[in-house]
Amino acid sequence: MTAQRARCLRRAVRAEWTKLRTVPSTPWLLAAAVGLTVVGSVGALASVDTSQCPTPTECFEDTTKLSLTGIWLGQAAVVVLGVQAMSSEYGTGTIGSTLAANPSRRLVLLAKVTAVATAALVAGVLGVLGSLAAGRAILAGNGFTSANGYEPLSLADGPTLRAAAGTVLYLGLVALLSLGVATAVRDTAGAITGVLTLLYGFPIVAELVSDPRWQHRLERYGPMEAGLSVQNTMRLDELPIAPWPGLGVLATYAGAALLSGLTLFQLRDA
Amino acid sequence: MPTMTKPGADRQPETDGRDRFGRLVRAEWTKLRTVPRWLMALAAVIGLALLVVLIESDQAGNEVEEGEPLEEPEFRDELHFVHQPLSGDGSITARVVSQEDSHEWAKAGVIVKERLEVGAPYAALLVTPDHGVRMQWGFEHDVAGSGGGAAPWWLRLTRSGDVVTGYESADATNWQQVGEVDLDGLPSTVEVGLFVASPDVVTIARQYGSNSVNEAATRGEAVFDNVSVEADGGSPSPGNGEWNDYDTSVEPDLGGSTESDGVFTLMGAGDIARNVRPFGDDLVELSLSGARVGMLAVAALGALFITAEFRRGMIRTTFAASPRRGRVLAAKAIVLGGATFSVGLIASVVSFLGWQANLRRTSRTPGLPELSLANPTVLRAVVGTAVLVALVAVLSLAIATIVRHTAVAIPLVILPLLVPSILSGGLPLPVANWLTRLTPAAGFAVQQTVTRYDTAIAPLVGLGVLAAYAAVALGVATMLLRRRDA
What we know:
heterodimer; A: mainly alpha; elongated; B: alpha+beta; 2 domains; 7-stranded antiparallel β-sheet; 18 strands; disordered N terminus
């Protein structure tokens, strides 16, 4: 029985993977996710220089986090990818064929989760490695040298490895959040707007709010700011939320979205 | 004679063009108002704006320490003043021998002040280290002298009735008029003398991954000699020619003066100018900040207004009914712009008034600024927000027409619009400011009502940047719409 289920799942995953990789937009979106991430990181890296600090040794710059700034842009392509994996089936009516071929909706969603997460994680690995490589190349030229107390970025360094791996996972979770929301609302525009509001809405409001209590709450429980807490390598005790629990907040959002998506998926007609 | 019509155009003569365009606009309006989801998006703009206002005004009153006035004075009147009274008409002359370069706008010179009180009317003739001789009055009027260059300078102010005239000279023989001002209602006895002031310096340094801003007082110092006060007609000075000190320096221990053998040395810190409040909250901008979140719904609506037609093939019906595609897009832009402007105006007026009312209710601080819609600056921000909303909708419509996919159009509008303001805190200030100036995010500048140290672009210029983006995108969209198959 379990062997049969595993075979079903394997087939469903292969079907979803075929769908995802043969849609012309997928390679573009993945390239955009990697490209935007690296370009954004390079821009941020190029703009920061130790000469802007009181003295070069008093920057207290989190160079790892700075090198990963581009994720703020790159994640938008992943949102589109995650949403479209589900919503385009409703847009074109393919969902009928999908469910005819595989009537278990739980299995369909699980297969989509696997395919979308894999694609997002691959894009994440490439984007993160590209950004860190850019960091190694640019930082020293802008004064972040060993003489000023900055070692070159290295994945052998525990906190940097955590930031890098965490950022890759962050992108995977954003894709799942998008997939979950898209499964619930079934409409491309609505789902993309909803996810972008969830991600960017919290920091916008947090930036404008001057009450420290509200600011703290918004930074602690907003999916993007909490999730990206994992990028920090310095002064962890001053963060609104610690790195891994922060990623857990995003995972909770993604899980809740997938769960409500699945519930609605099972209750509704296709 | 039958008029020529383009192939495929309907048979009505061209003279009907305006009427047909009216019908086109009506058709697009019907499309907009009959899709419930789009109306929901419009409602969401107002809803999101109000939600943000509720969150923010909930705390806006609490942040103010009790007794600390939220409103700062309109001007700063900080100086060290060595003065004596002057009755009737007369003049004061002095030579500024040297001046410390404590600030590019440090001031040293002679002044006529109505009375010894902060904010009292004055006229000052002064030397600055980097901006030559200036004549200033009323906290905002500033006239440059003829010659550039720093001290030494001979300066003279004469008073005749209500009129004060300033003269400068390099050698005490050739005098040149710098400026003349009518100080209405100047009393017969005024205070004249020497003064020194030096504005605060704002330094921005990067630390801990963000900008740390520091404002520090600077101490101005200048040496004067050949000081003389002359009353016309030789009427005796009420103070018997005795000099007194008056100090309103921003830090009292920075002000002071010494005198020996007619050589005066004055020290003072502060500024005599309009108060620019470089760190003050912009209460109007805060009350309208809900628009930033509302933009997500606006961008989605703008994109859907055309992509829904592409996706359902409806666009072919639309073009069959009115083959002139440029006009179709124009009609869509007008309807969408008009609808979003109206909704934006409702949202901004309601959030401004609601925020004000809530602030007044929750704050126990007296002296809150009276901001009303009748104030032209406030009105510019409130109406400008509605224009901003409409421009974003049209920009989104144009971009969606170009890329023809909702999923691509929405992030293409949202990212450049919202990410600059989110990222700006983590980037060095000049970079963040350029990012704001060059992206559609510049449009949010129209909500500003005060100039801060981090102000990137003037309100209407910023709105112009966004309008330029929308216009260019609309132009490209029209071109592509004509050229491509539907």
